[in-house]
Amino acid sequence: MTEMFVLPKMDAAGSWLAPPERLMLNNDEVHIWCASLEMTSSQVKTMENILSADELSRAGRYYFPKHRDHFIAARGLLRTILGRYAGKNPEDLQFSYGPNGKPELTEETGGNFRFNISHSHGLSLFAVTLNRDAGVDLEYINSDLSVGDLAEQFLSPRELLAFKAVPEHGRPRAFFTAWTRKEACLKAQGRGLSADLRQLEVFPASGCQCKFPEKMKGPGQKESPWLLMDLAVLPEYAAALAVEGNDLQYKFWQWRMPDQTGNKSKLI
Ligand SMILES: CC(C)(COP(=O)(O)OP(=O)(O)OC[C@H]1O[C@@H](n2cnc3c(N)ncnc32)[C@H](O)[C@@H]1OP(=O)(O)O)[C@@H](O)C(=O)NCCC(=O)NCCS
Distance between alpha carbon 139 and the CA centroid of its chain, in Å? Predict the structure, then answer.
């Protein structure tokens, strides 16, 4: 049974659309994809068939079958989406990994295309660009977490003041908004979460875009500005994109499996 994807309108930049048959990515474009990871077992099997040996071995290390299936679904979708841009079969794509584990396409299988992915609670986000780095982060807003404690740990003193000014009921979203912005920045640069997140001030931002913080430019980092943007996905999630460059065009695509079922596919 096919369920409709109903993603909210983004903002002036556009809304989540069904992708065209032929995908064209220009140098000044960022394509952002949103997809459910809730798949039937036959869909998971299809995705499994296009994974590499090392990805299958990683999938095999997940303790919970649900997490294993979500990993397979996310990697399978990543290969399928990138294959469409690179004009390659998904199974022929090869990835290499940066010092902190950021995957990228090898030169031979589409090195000009850059991407980043994030998944949380059955949902995934993919950013695809040409020759520019990008990072995405997606988090399910878990209202059971003590966001006050997390805020003390990860927000700068100025951010913490702004966070405490948010009414109690809005704090889970406020914290995860700040968190996803920080993580998107770090992922754009291929850094891990080992960086001191309090050094990276991203909250509150005026409007939906703000400059990538100067402090986070790494050694040898290009001088071009970075943009940070909140992404409207589903009400229970926070998401952000950090991308190198300015004056960019953004396109928001939603991936739908032909016969996708399950709660998450209803949600998106
Ligand atoms: C990258 C990282 C921030 C992702 O955290 P997360 O919230 O659990 O996961 P997300 O769903 O947002 O993103 C996961 C995806 O990011 C990508 N990714 C992995 N490492 C990355 C990095 N250093 N930079 C950018 N993206 C990265 C992968 O595609 C990964 O997907 P996969 O797990 O299916 O392979 C976290 O795993 C991290 O800090 N890793 C680096 C660890 C490190 O620094 N190791 C060095 C030795 S200490």
Answer: 9
Is the distance from the beta carbon of residue 124 to the nearest atom of ligand 1 less than 6 Å?
Answer: no
Give a yes or no: residue 244 inside a domain.
yes
Place of tokens 């990515």: 25
Residue with CA closest to ligand 1 atom 41? 192
Q: In this structure, is residue 265 part of a structural domain?
A: no
Q: Which two tokens stand for residue 75?
A: 């990697």
Determine the structural domain holding residue 115 and report its residue range: 9-259
Model pLDDT for residues 104-120, shown as the tens digit of each residue: 999 998 889 999 999 99
Q: How far is the CA of 90 from the centre of ligand 1 (A)?
A: 21
Q: How does pLDDT run across 143-177, given as a tens digit for each residue?
A: 889 999 999 999 999 999 999 999 999 999 999 99
For the entire predicted model, the pTM comes to 0.88
267 belongs to a structural domain:
no
Give the tens place of pLDDT for each residue, 28-47: 999 999 999 999 999 999 99
CB count in 10 Å sphere of residue 122: 20
